[in-house]
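Hey team,

Filing this mostly as a record. A colleague (T.K.) asked me to run one chain through the structure pipeline before their review meeting, and I want the input and output archived in the tracker in case anyone asks later how it was produced. No errors, nothing strange. Just documentation.

Input sequence:
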Amino acid sequence: MKKKALAILLTLCCVLPMVLTGCGGGGNGGTSSGERVTITVGVPQNANVTSYDDNAFTRYLEEVANVDLEFVFFPSKSTDYVRQLTLMAAANETMPDVLWGFGGLSTNARNEFGQSGYLMDLTDLIEKYAPDYKAAMAKLSQHDQDRILTRMKDGDGAIYGMPQFLDQVVWDDLQGFLFINQDWLDTLGLKQPETIDELYTVLKAFKEKDPNGNRIADEIPLYGKTSGNYTVTTWIINAYVYFNDTYDLNVTNGKLWAPYTTDEYRQALIFLNKLCKEGLLSDLSFSAGASEMKAMVTPATGTAQVGIWAGHPQVYADGNSPILEQYQPYAGLQDETGKGGYYVLNPKNLSFPLMITTDCQNPEAAMRLINVFYQDETVTRQRHGEKGVDWIEENGTTCYGDDGHIKVVNSAAFFKGSQTWCSNGGGIMNPWNYLAIENATTQGDQVVNKLQRTCYETILKDIVQPTERCEDLVYTPEQYEQRSQYSGTIRDYWLEQRNLFILGTLDPSNDAQWNNYLNELNRLGLQEYIDLMQQAYEDNLNLN
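Output structure:
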């Protein structure tokens, strides 16, 4: 296939010159399923992998796919491996046969690599050599199948990447993930607050009425992350207006709008600013890391200090602290404005990290290798390590309450060593092939798992979302390029200003300061961004 210039992607080369990693050719030349061939695999190198060659997962893939694997290493960071791949294309370097773990390559970048002749159209290869992929897809809901297939294909119907999909709502899909000190509520004769006014009353009581009983004014009423997932800010803003930190535009009756310019959003900032002023929301929430938060939420000794906190319990809490047992899951707040009362749930995780390059001389063997990633045992080994060594078969229940059979023996296999590639780089994951059964060996693990599961169940039971949402869009190359000119700058600005308004550096009640904020958003191109996204949204309605 003749290769042509990468018009958009080559601009990346101007950002950060790098040394190209040398790579080998494309295999032995054999094509039949019975002949063992060599496949070169490009991987973003994980420093925690002791050896990719002398590796249990590598040996398993070689045996099942009847191939020998040779590795070509790329930088671990997505922006860096995309640059290296682009530079290799520009220099007409020979690429690895298969790219694995390249989920950071955007849909548009992937399609442009394919349309420019660097990636193979996999349509026919899938039909002939990927039965396990097709079987795994058939088990998904029709909605999930449609979503994957829509995002796999370019505008002409070509397929340049194979999916990694998590068929399970998990912690990473949730925003505003909170816990409340039930002992403090009981001591003060209060119930979990359901409205903004009730929340304020409870936080004031937590601060002023010594709920931990140590006769010291050391209580922190509200504490937690303030950006990304599991956040205090997202949780409170959604009582006023639907707001997703990841997908920052809303849609009503088919028309897109920016929630962070609305009066309802301003009301939320005024309330958050009030909490900060009165010491009800700790300003440490804007700076503390995981270790600092863990020590604050679950101190090893003494009394509880935090009333309500936001964060993943496995990251921001110590299950060995008896104080963690005082907390209960805390769901979303009721509608405060007539436009709120929501909870944010992101789409299930989907990327396309597996590709075959046009330098591959054995595309059938390469596709047979890729197909193995859609077998249940491969998914399990990719995540948990060697069967019989790092995990064993045992029926049980996962931390999400699903039936499971994976009992982990060596929990470190995914994180360091030579049992896995210490990363997920392909496959369709589900509770059966991916999630381990609860194997809590300590009381602390049991407390964390119980809290995690009950919170998950509470949120999914009570979750309310708008019927229309602008998320998970597919863009044309032109839309993608134009979007990149606006989205990052605008997002950085409203996030920075949100924190300044909440902390009190700026006053959200001050009309002049609020108008300056709106005017700067307009100067940065907010309306142009909305118009661009409106067209992409309408295009996606036609795709679906």
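Quick notes for T.K.: The mean pLDDT is 88. The longest helix spans residues 477-503.
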